[in-house]
Amino acid sequence: MFLINCPYCGERDQSEFVSGGEAHIARPKQPTELNDDQWAEYLFMRKNIKGVQFERWNHAHGCRKWFNVARDTSNDKIEKIYKMGEQPPKL
Amino acid sequence: MSKNLRINNKQFVDETRKLSFVFNGKKLYGYKGDTLASALLSNDIHLVGRSFKYHRPRGIMTSGSEEPNAILQIGNDDALTEPNVRATEIELYDGLICNSQNCWPSVNFDIGGINNFLSPLLPAGFYYKTFMWPASFWEKYEYFIRKSAGLGKSPTKQDPDMYDHRYMHCDILIVGGGVSGLVAAKIASDDNKKVLLLEDKELLGGSLIYDDNDISKIDNQKSNEWLKKLIDNIKNDKNIIIKTRTSLAAYHNYNFLLARQNLTDHLSVNDRNNKIRQRLYKIRAKKVIISTGAIERPQVFHNNDRPGIMLASAVKKYIDYYGVRCGLENVIFTNNDSAYETALSLHKSGTKLNAIIDIRDNSSSEIVNKVKSLGIQIYWNHTVINTKGYKRINKITIMKLNDKGNDVVGKKIELNCDCLAISGGWTPMVHLFTQSGGKLRFDNKDNIFVPDKTNLDQLSIGSAKGDFELDDVLKNSIKDTKKFLNIENSNFDKIDVKCSKEKEKKNIWLLPSDRPLSKTKPFLDYQNDSTAKDIKLALREGFKSIEHVKRYTTTGMGTDQGKLANMHALGIVADTTNTNMGDLGTTTFRPPYTPLTFGTIVGRNVGQFFDIFRKTPMHEWHVENNAKFENVGQWKRAWYYPKDGETMHDAVQRESKAARESSGILDASTLGKIDIQGTDANEFLNRVYTNAWSKLQIGKCRYGLMLNEDGMVYDDGVTTRLGENHYLMTTTTGGAANVMSKLEDYLQTEWPELDVFLTSVTDHYATASVCGPNAKKIINKIFKDLDLSDESFPHMSFKEVKLGDINCRVMRISFTGELSYEINVEASYGKYIWEKCIEAGKEFNITPYGTETMHLLRAEKGFIIVGQDTDGTMTPVDLQMDWIISKKKYDFIGKRSLYRSDTIREDRKQLVGLLTDDPNEILEEGAQIVKDENKKPVDMLGHVTSSYFSPTLKKSIALAVLKEGKQLKGQKLLVPMIDKTIKVTVSDTIFLDKENERING
Lengths: 91, 1001
Description:
The complex is a heterodimer.
Chain A: E1 3-6, E2 10-13, E3 18-22, H1 36-43, E4 52-58, E5 66-72, E6 77-83
Antiparallel strand pairs in A: 1-2, 3-4, 4-5, 5-6
Chain B: E1 14-23, E2 26-32, H1 36-42, E3 47-50, E4 57-59, E5 71-74, E6 82-86, E7 96-99, H2 114-117, H3 126-130, H4 138-148, E8 162-175, H5 179-190, E9 195-198, E10 217-218, E11 221-222, H6 223-235, E12 240-243, E13 246-252, E14 256-262, E15 276-290, E16 294-296, E17 309-311, H7 312-320, E18 330-334, H8 339-348, E19 353-358, H9 366-373, E20 378-380, E21 382-388, E22 395-401, E23 408-416, E24 419-423, E25 426-428, H10 431-435, E26 439-443, E27 448-453, E28 458-460, H11 470-484, E29 497-498, E30 523-525, E31 530-531, H12 532-540, H13 546-553, H14 566-577, H15 581-584, H16 598-602, H17 619-624, E32 628-632, E33 635-640, H18 648-661, E34 664-667, E35 672-677, H19 681-688, E36 701-707, E37 713-723, E38 726-731, H20 736-750, E39 757-760, E40 765-771, H21 775-782, E41 797-803, E42 806-812, E43 820-826, H22 830-841, E44 847-848, H23 851-860, E45 909-916, E46 928-929, E47 942-950, E48 955-963, E49 972-976, E50 981-987
Parallel strand pairs in B: 1-7, 8-9, 8-15, 9-12, 15-28, 17-24, 18-19, 18-24, 19-20, 34-44
Antiparallel strand pairs in B: 1-2, 3-4, 5-6, 5-7, 10-11, 10-29, 13-14, 14-15, 16-25, 21-22, 22-23, 26-27, 30-31, 32-33, 34-40, 35-38, 35-39, 36-37, 37-38, 40-43, 41-42, 42-43, 45-48, 45-50, 46-47, 47-48, 49-50
Helix pairs in contact in B: 5-6, 5-11, 7-8, 8-9, 12-13, 12-14, 18-23, 21-22
């Protein structure tokens, strides 16, 4: 159970949040232009790395805002929290 | 109580308060302050249980949570009885009833004891090897294995006790109230930190508090007296919250910890009424100090498990703390100096100590010299090779070790002994440290794993860190705590500690015997009966990883989780495979540290508080009118309304007939409702639904289908345009929260440029849905001024009307195929409007119907229910709902996936209707559909998703998903059931009113 510092509400218990998987996968603007492989890349392919991973989190039982989290999957250490639309930090 | 076993005048036991208890049907006595174990020992009872596999007699071995043998069934009440309780941990109370486990008919005469003689036939992995073949026999084996497995009996009735949860926050959490934890607490408090101090026993002070020798001195005082003053000081310290009888169960990441406090288990049963039994603390600590101490190890030799063989530290505690002698003919068997403290305690209490056997060549420490000076016989470089006495040890045989320590030489010596105190050194309790993700380091000097690296703000001190001697414990605890807390000076900086120092060390994981290993029983895990032989067998059979060896031999898998067994198991594996123990690593320590009751884990979340349940504003009316309810998500929905003892089938037939022939009314308040506003609301709907929304006029309603990005149907519902930039979306009851989350996600992350605002209003409105040929007349009676003509108020349209002061949103929409109106009002008027409808509908026999009838009515019309007829693998094309996919829209969620190579396959499962050849035969939902029963293996073509008997059509109807279903219309197929095979024909999905004429009444 980790603590997450919601950029809108401050530090809260993990139980208030839900994880939304890998971050920075933008929905293609013109899906119909993509072939099956390209669409599948967007739809299905996700990284599963040991180390710092960029993830989407939602403060579901709070402000309901989505934001990004850079989390080390090997020890759950949160390296950085930043808002939607911001570029991933260089770590 | 046997007089010569109880030593009087011990400060921790109150001899003025005599308590009675019952063990295996016999009434016995102990004192307030006793544990059940010390009370049993004072009655000369060692034999308390039988081992798991061989049913060997086993006695009390320890004085703490590591106890493997003395686990008892407490209580004889069906609801309150508790299995697997360690006698060493339960405080004696008046009227305690306990029984031995895993023995029949009694602990003294146990039929299962025959397994001991069959043991050559029961090696490690016996069950895995034997009960594999033939595979089809497993069900028969399982019955017998389950009967012989397990130790105690679970309570059979609901737990009547109350349990509690509480959150706590602190600057410094200190786990363990021994001397190192107490010193750390004082240092932290002096620095003005908020300290939470947990101690699993009822008193603070750890093992030092009852240590009564003249060698250990702190600041020139006897160490226990110095400690008592510190404890008094800490008890009055406002910065320190002390929780005793509180054991730490789990140490999670981010310094989140769970601890369990026992509040009533030490009280007599009558004093427990209306009190909370246990409390679970959920602790967030800025910093954590682990001072959990160490556990003494046994020694591993032939027949080392007899009742009367105990840890040396336990023998000492029973004398010094409880005033109980564990035997009258004591022998100590050790490999280190700490057991000599036991020797001093035995001597001081006037208890006979026949000899000390030490595997070392000599020891020249202060404490050993003192024991030598008392004239006690010490056998240096000797080992115990065998013990005798079936239900209680009575003799031991010892021999001299050879130079290498791997064999015995010389003459056998036999010694009388009714209590053998053994010590194999000490193991730091690093469980919590590793639970928290910390990595261990192996220390070759003491053969221990000690805390090394951690990511968390935590510190291990005292013997939990590997410091065993008092000067190291105190000086290092003070130094490390100061550094951890960034403190320059403390009041302990000039502390002066004197204690005996151990100089000679020797360790042999598996002691040699005069007979071959195969003829011996050197136990490692007492509870699970695994021996050194089993470990070696596992290695011979190719198990290399310590985790595999553990599972194969079950070493360390009992309720004590290998607290005693693990180090020897690792040592023997390392010795046998010539591996360094540090390279071997340890098995994983998992929470909870000691077993928790389920009651503690769930706390108050039992019964009606197990989960929240949601009730509609009309709920009370449904209750008053005899509704049966079903759970839909968290909602309680009226399922059907049986009249005069009707069965569910009869009620549903009556309700659906009434809805088709005259009028019915459904509470539809549970449907998810999302209020959508903003200048881009229309564009937003276009993007989230498959169909087009641009042309929907104000005051009109439209059915929409929502997909996942993978093209699979996600939700459906009717959305009404209330105003220029204002819509009301409805969702399925169960999907409401997920749909809301999904839409918010898209708005915030993919389309932040859209001017759209979403508000969940599910709970804000109540909905009464009136349907049937007489619906219009009923609505007309309620809203007299409302023009209900088809021209003014056609199907799929909406009007806002007032009933007195109540704003009503009336939608003419239908899920039954009948003429139907849904009246939405603010939730507080829900019951009022419902009763108004019932009253107005009385002359038309308006019939309340529940979800079951609703399902039947919509199935007759072939309307799907998302989640029943779909399962996350169905596209709209699979559902034969191609008509709802807009061809013109450039994009919507899931559009691209509708022509992936997989979604355009012709042979996907598709939604079809099924009619049984026998119209009275009702299919079972979930039943498989096949074409040819004889071809093996049988091809499963699909399954039934919805099935009902239609009273209007007077036949059974069903919906099903079927491979290539679209092409199979008219095809005869089979639905095999356990006792018969049902013949069916594939049909259209619409069974009633294909022309859609009923919608206009």
